[in-house]
Every structure is written in C-alpha cells, then in structure tokens.
Amino acid sequence: MNFNNLADLYKEELLSNVVPFWIEKSQDNQFGGYFTCLMRDGSVYDTDKFIWLQGRQAWFFSYIYNKVEKQQKWLDCAIQGGEFLKKHGHDGQFNWYFSLNREGKPLIAPYNIFSYTFAAMAFGQLSRATGSQEYADIAKRTYQMILKRAVNPKDKWNKTIAGTRDLKNFAFPMIMCNLSLEMEPLLDKAVLDETIETCLHEILDIFWRPEINLVVENVTTDGKLSNSFDGRLLNPGHAIEAMWFIMDLGVRLKKQSIIDKAVEISLKMADYGWDKEYGGIFYFMDRSGYPPQQLEWDQKLWWVHIETLVCMLKGYQLTGNKECLKWFEKVHDYTWNHFKDPDYPEWFGYLNRRGEIQLPVKGGKWKGCFHVPRGLYQCWQSLHTIAHAKES
User: Whole-angstrom Cα distance, residue 355 to residue 225?
Assistant: First the structure.
C-alpha cells in the first residue's frame, strides 16, 4: 500500500472536490446560513435550515481555516454561518432550535441536544479563527447548557413516561468526548477532566458490553441491558466513530491502554456490522438477531463508512495493528466504489443493502457539510503521518 499516494487522493478529493462544492452550492447569500437540501448537482430542493447542520458547516470551514490554510473565502463562509446562528439559531437564552425557515424564523423547538453540541463546536472553532471573545462566550455558555441537560438531554420534550423503562443513550457521552476535546482551550480544566472521565467510564464500562462483545445504543439508567427494541439496538457506525474519539482522548491522556481498548472494540464492531452477503456496514442491528424496528436498518450510509475509514487508520497509526489496515483497505474499496459520485462533486449518502443508490441527493435534513469533508481530512492526516513514519 502506497500511503503517500493515498494521502494525496484524500487531500485532492477534499480540497478540489468537496470543499468547493459546499462553498459554491450551499451558501445563502440573501439571508445567510447554508442550504443543505441539495440535489446531485448541488441545486437546492428545500430551503429549511437545520441548526445542527448549520453548526457543523460553520465548524468545518473554521476548522480547515485553522488547520489547513488561512483562505479568506473559507473564513468568510464560516463567519456568515456563525452570524446567522448567533442571530436566529436560539431563543435568546442559548436554547438552540432544531430548525428554522430560510429567513431564520424558528420551526421546531430546542428539543435536540445536538443542536447545542454543534453550535458549541462551531463557535469554539470560530473563536480560534477570528479571536472573537463574543464567539468564545457563546461556545462556553452553550457548553454549560449541555452539561445541565446531561441527565435528560431532551429536557421537557422527552416523550417517555418516567419510571417504567428508563434508558440512557450512547450518543450523549459519545459526542461529549469529541466536543470536550474540541473546546479544551475554552474550558476550565477541572470541568474538562471530570467530563472526560465520565464519558470514558460511560462508554468503556457501561455501553461496551464485554459479555456480548458489542457496544449497545441504550442501557437502563442503572447500567443494565434492556430486553426491548431500544435495549437491543446496535448502530455499528456510531460505535466505531466513538472509538476514534476515544483514541484521540487516549493520545491526550497519554494512556496507551485506552487506545488499545478502542482498537479492540472497533475491530469487533466492524466485524459484527459487516454485511457478509453484499458488503458494507449495516445501519442498525439487533443484538439478539431479531428484526430491528428501524425500517432502514439494512441501508448503507455514507457516514458509517467514512467514520470507519477514519477509525481504522487511526488504529493502525497508533498501534500498528495490521487488522486495522485490512479493514481500512476493505472499507476504502467499498466506500470509493459506491459513495463517490463519478459525475458531480460530493458523495452520495444513501444506498440500499445491495449498494445501489437509494437517494441521489448530496444533502438534506441529516446529511450536510460534515462527515465527508471531516473524514477526508482525518484520513489525509493519518495517511500522511503513517507515510512519514515509514520513510523515517
């Protein structure tokens, strides 16, 4: 495997294909913010604006401005999205709505904690790019709001009846791993350390179940398995994405044991989630082998495969585990052969089980400027580091 050539492939795809697509096609030059509902060619098919996708895009363009090159058009793109969010994205108390109409009027209430997490990420990265104290303050205040909602992330919009089947979800500690590292320069060290310790405990000691060698999506509030639809639910891509967050934490904490554990878990989840008949990784599964309640369970999604590429490369980079490299090759071939559009920029998001294109869109309510560009960047950086190490 030629790591230099692969690094160039991921870099070229990011900077010459994906980044220009979002710069040119997504920006709303009239009202601000970004369009995410984009057809195959980038034409807009719906103008609603989803806060978590607005935050993700403002974060990404700030991030590459900070990490890759200080291109003014990247910073301008990030700032205009941030300003739209600052003006329209919350209720004045930094409760972040789920969605707005094109002009910025709220459509759906602040029920979704991920509106908060990606707003915090966006303003944290924007503050680094601009030096703005106002952006830093928004990021810190939003982070505090997230911590307050940790016990009940949906707050008053939680539809479940308390006391019957109380479950907690994997997504919250997972996203807090990444968000806390993202915002480290802005946070009090004691708060950061406590949050990281809690997240590591939740993921590695509670949601990772060594008795079945799987990461589950939901457990009871006292940390037990639940024999229910939600309790049996697996999302292999979610677990694998979390493992590269854990690897990053292991690097920060200088704890090789954490990195090794994350590699072990990611390999088990990839093997369990791989479709042995058609290839690719299933979206949802049931840990007992029953039919999942999600009708889209057997679809193959862009983010699942891209996050697996990132995870397996980091695993190989940090441990030299050859199984990670084998999985990277396998998923690389599937991903580039099925998700990359040969005729237009950006990648498809939704395939059926056989790997055929289910939806020809490049973005929508759930897919925006995030997993593809972030994944390409992460893979480029890991491949470059591996290539450099091999040459030394």
Answer: 32
- From CA 135, how far away is CA 86, in angstroms rounded? 9
Helix (H) or strand (E) holding 99: strand 99-100
In terms of domains, do 240 and 293 share one?
A: yes
What is the domain range of residue 219?
1-26+166-359+366-392
Alpha-carbon gap, residue 282 to 150, rounded angstroms: 29
pLDDT for 51-110, tens place per residue? 999 999 999 999 999 999 999 999 999 999 999 999 999 999 999 999 999 999 999 999
Spatial separation of the C-alpha atoms in residues 121 and 84, rounded to whole Å: 15
* Number of domains forming the structure of the chain: 2
- Beta-carbon count within 10 A of 86 CB: 18
Give dist(CA 93, CA 354) in Å, integer: 46
Say whether both 320 and 238 belong to one domain. Answer: yes
Residues with Cβ < 8 Å from 299, sequence gap 6 or more?
283, 350, 351, 352, 353, 358
234-266: string of b/e by CB count within 10 Å (b at 16+)? bbbbbbbbbbbbbbbbbeeeeeeebbbbbbbbb
Task: Provide the 3-class DSSP secondary structure of residue 281.
Answer: strand
On whether the pTM is more than 0.85, the answer is yes
pLDDT in tens, 11-48: 999 999 999 999 999 999 999 999 999 999 999 999 99
Helices (H), 36-112: 51-67, 72-88
Degrees (nearest 5) of the Cα angle 83, 87, 89? Answer: 100
Q: What are phi and psi of 27, to 5 degrees?
A: -75, 130
Name the DSSP class of 259: H
Specify the pairing of strand 99-100 against strand 49-50: antiparallel
Q: How far apart are CA 74 and CA 243, in angstroms?
A: 29
**Of 159, 176, 198, which closes a domain?**
159
- CB-count exposure of residue 227 (10 Å: 0-12, 13-18, 19+): exposed
Return the number of other C-beta atoms located less than 10 Å from residue 84's C-beta: 20
Dihedral sign, Cα of residue 76, residue 78, residue 79, residue 85: positive
